[in-house]
Structure formats: C-alpha cells, structure tokens
Known about the structure:
Blueprint: H1 7-15, H2 26-29, H3 31-42, E1 47-51, E2 60-66, E3 69-75, E4 81-85, E5 100-102, E6 106-107, E7 114-115, E8 121-123, E9 142-146, E10 149-153, H4 162-173, E11 181-191, H5 195-202, H6 212-215, H7 234-254, E12 261-263, E13 271-276, E14 307-312, E15 316-320, E16 325-334, E17 337-347, H8 358-383, H9 398-418
Antiparallel strand pairs: 1-10, 2-3, 2-5, 3-4, 6-7, 7-8, 9-10, 11-17, 12-13, 13-14, 14-15, 15-16, 16-17
GO molecular function, one term: 2 iron, 2 sulfur cluster binding
Keywords: 2Fe-2S, Dioxygenase, Iron, Iron-sulfur, Metal-binding, Oxidoreductase
Protein name: Aromatic ring-hydroxylating dioxygenase subunit alpha
Amino acid sequence: xxxxxxxxxxxxxxxxxxxxxxxxxxxxxxxxxxxxxxxxxxxxxxxxxxxxxxxxxxxxxxxxxxxxxxxxxxxxxxxxxxxxxxxxxxxxxxxxxxxxxxxxxxxxxxxxxxxxxxxxxxxxxxxxxxxxxxxxxxxxxxxxxxxxxxxxxxxxxxxxxxxxxxxxxxxxxxxxxxxxxxxxxxxxxxxxxxxxxxxxxxxxxxxxxxxxxxxxxxxxxxxxxxxxxxxxxxxxxxxxxxxxxxxxxxxxxxxxxxxxxxxxxxxxxxxxxxxxxxxxxxxxxxxxxxxxxxxxxxxxxxxxxxxxxxxxxxxxxxxxxxxxxxxxxxxxxxxxxxxxxxxxxxxxxxxxxxxxxxxxxxxxxxxxxxxxxxxxxxxxxxxxxxxxxxxxxxxxxxxxxxxxxxxxxxxxxxxxxxx
Length: 419
C-alpha cells in the first residue's frame, strides 16, 4: 500500500469502514491519514499529557509534542497549571527545547524575549517606543486538571462535554490523592506501530496469555461476558466473582464509587471508568498482588482495594491502587511510531528503598509494556502487507470496536466541517 493516500480517497475509506472489523491498511500506514489523525483527533480533543506530580513547584515544566505542535505545561506562581504554545511571539523560535525542567521565567534563547510563567511578555529588548508588551504574551492552550491528571486541548473551542465528565469521574479518582503524589519513575517506550494499533491492543485482553507477569495479579477476563468465558478461564472467572463480591462490600463500606461508566463512542470525549478487584493478595500490580509501597497514597484503612481503571479516548489509560498509581499515554510520532509513556506515582512522602523497591513497583508493567510493543510491531508489519484485509473482532474485543467507531466518527465529523 502506497503510504500516500489521495485526499479524495480519505472520505471513501471512512465511509466504507465495515462495522465490527479492523480498519483498512491506509489507516495504519498512510502519511496523509497520519496527518489527518493529528489534525482531526489530537488537535481537536482533550489529550492527557502529564500528571500534576511532574510539575510540583512553580516554574516546573514539561513539554509535549503533538504532530507539528509543541506545548509547554508549567506551574505558575499561583500554583495553577498552565499550558502555552512553545513558540516565541517575536519570530516564532522554539523556546524551551528540553522535555522537562524548572525556570524562573521562560526565556527564548534566540533574541531573549522573556515571559513569565503566566505567559505574559516581561521583556523584549530594542523594540519601538509604541511597542505594547501586553499584546505579545505566549499563546495559551486550553488545560484542565482532573484529580491530578493534566489534559490539554489545542482546538479554539474544545469539546464541551469534558466538564461533565470531570464531574462524574473525580469522585472515583480523588480519594487516591494524585494531585499530591510524586513521581517514582517514568519510562518512555517507542512502539514501532501506528498509535491506533497501540490503543486497540490496550482495549482488549484477548491476547493476555502473552502477559505472564500481568496474569499473576490481574484477572485476564477483561471484555468477557459470562457466557463467553472459555473453559480454560472458568476457574479464574469463578475466583474473580468471589473477589468481586468481597471488593464491592469493601467499596460500599468505604464510600468508594465502583460502578462501571462506559461511554466510549457516544460522545466527543469517550471514556470508561470502573473499580474492581485484583488477583492474588488483591492489593497491587506485583508478582503476588501484595502492595508495592508501604506508604499508601491516602489514608485508606486497607490496601486491598484492587484497581480503579480509567481510560479516555484517544490516548490514555490509568490504574489507581491503594499504594500507587500508573498513568499511560500514547503520543503519535509517525504512521508507524508511537511514544508510550508510563509514569508510576507514589505518596509524596514515600521513600525509595524504605517504603518501596523500584524494581518491585515497576516489574509487572515494564514487562507487559515490552511484550505489548512486540505484539503491536507484529501487527504493524502485518497491516503493511498487500495480503492484509480487515478481520472481524471477537465479542471480547467490544472495546476495540468502540475505540475504532469513536475514531471513525471523529474523522467523519471533521471531514464534514471541511466541506
């Protein structure tokens, strides 16, 4: 398949997408469709980019790249999280060139225009007498924090449903105290695959036999309806039902919301949230399910809270336990390259080597991420073959279908606006 897809063909590809089947090859290999993904999806929707724990103090910043866009995420002097285009208002130079750091002011290294961490232009040497600094502050980007998670939207008018979603999910997330957590570690992994293959892989457990470390503490029945559970998983499923009954009793006693909310492809900001048990000791993502950090994220009376799982279209998923939390983001780098960033959060006062061992904390998901990178690279190679034709999703892949349907719906909406 030629990586260049004629513009006239894009609408046809979208229109003829077969429900319940994987996408046609150009969606995964075409340079033009990759550009459309950035324009129609990543530049128009709410994108998870960081945690508040990554910018704990005023002046702390991270930068994120979304296609041609570079964005600065910074905590200002009032301790609010702000976002700005990483473009100097003088002649457009890139201002901050590191992925993260700390600044007193934001200074362009080209002609030294200087901005406050609130984006205001403070200094521009040798300007005309009538130069008005107030007209040349950094261009802001919409930013919202959701119980310690930082989302941005590049669109002039972001999807309006995000405020409602925040109201609904914050009661689930807030008890874990992420806004006051700290980063234990962060690992970047480049997957040699289209970002959609990364997300499709994440949205199903049909392949979970390929994750032995994960299966030691995780019930690999994600996506299965009771009638579809195969015989080999039936003992695991029965064990899950017992653990789930115990977990629900605990959640109700502690006043923790746990009911599943799943609105993945019926709105601009698709999302899913659910609290359910883990296997083994039921406390954390470790080899035996015991807590990886002695210092819990909050004043929970027990570590046996299983996992709170949350994900948002198009690029993020999260696991929150009593002892730590893990955030994942997928950032497209090219038609066949995706950055997967994984961040482990612990209590702000937890001490490495005393309260937690970093290898124990990260072992399960480090292994799982590497295994997933192999799977999606194989998928990318397969869809790049002239022999590839879209195949049907299994019932356990319903959330893959929901993701793909959301994606196609967003492309359709964008293309309609362009007509």
